[in-house]
Amino acid sequence: MESKYMVIYTDIVEQIRRKKYKAKKTLPSEHDLMEIYSTSRETVRKGLNLLAQHGFIQKVRGKGSVVLGSDKIDFPVSGLVSFKELAKKMGKTHRTVVQHLSCEHPTENTMNHLNIKKNDEIWVVKRSREIDGEKIIYDKDYINKAYVEHLTEEICENSIYEYLEKELNLKISFAKKEITVRKPDEEEKAYIDLNGENNVVIVRNYVYLSDASLFQYTESSHRPDKFQFVDFARR
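That's the Trehalose operon repressor sequence above. Prediction below.
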């Protein structure tokens, strides 16, 4: 069960994203938040402290908690969230455009990433992701066909994870992530609206099923001015 202060944090983030709580305006007082969430002052303060740590609010003496303006999208470092889930949570207009879909034998590089052999088959899916009409992510997915026999452009436009979990009953369990920054290549320049940005943030995912089978390798290129990569750490 999610901690109450995390419920407060998640709910207020959602309302900031949806502009219910606007930039430069104050949140309800601690006393009001205690009543809204039926909880103690200590729990409310934990939620507010987390909001401050992640850059959503600033505590100002005599004014309370002031909402900070930010157009950046929170990208969770830990956890596995699909693009559709992320966009829906933010209340943003979103669209996925499939640039390429094929079933083929792996390159040597992909063989190493997925730990497969040259005679195995993989799905190669390349998609550009739009938020509010701007292409800000370019995804390249390599999926072991042994686990996913059928894949269509329609499935890729909607949500591959939704299809895998609901239709194929596959249990996606965990992922190893690597994050780097580099200059965009020609493919990224074509499929990301870089808007003058000279770098892209690359998130590499090695995704495993519940039986620890590695079934997917993904390279996601992000426009850096549109995202902030966040994690929640506990000692």
